[in-house]
Amino acid sequence: MKQTLAERFTTECQPYASMVYRHCLHMLKRPEEAEDAAQESMLRAFRSYERYRGDGTATWLYRIAHNTCLDVLKSSRVKKESLLAENAPETPDVSPNPEEMYIARSRQEALWAAVSELSIEQQTLLNLFYGDGMSYQEMAAATGLAEGTIKSRLSRAKDALRGRWNPDEK
Hints:
Elements lengths: L4 H9 L3 H12 L2 H17 L9 H31 L10 H19 L3 H12 L4 H8 L3 H18 L6
Helix pairs in contact: 2-3, 2-4, 3-4, 6-8, 7-8
């Protein structure tokens, strides 16, 4: 007796239904979405079963499930982005006004002028620490100085800079 297409599909593909669900759950993380995606995957597989050549059923179903989950993720991301865009409040203009920009630029210029009055070594240590974000250990390796020497000389450089620059002056 010859099996119908639906019977052949059930016989060949049904044993992999739990694998399809587990993969969907792994990708989507939510059981209800995974169930829907697994059902959609099996439905897509059934629709294309006539064209299926019959080699690697598990791999074939896995690929269908994977693509279905990608579609779900893509559509949920698009929905989420459009929902956020619709409900997003208008963002106020937080760009600095000309006076704030002038004050910030003046402070920065005063800082650079004060730094330029320091010794080359002090400028270098401040640049390595603040500009390059190096640790004391990294600074020691870069300069060849001992870590303790770095700490004391950097401290003196900071003190010297404080004596030359007051950020609250206008």
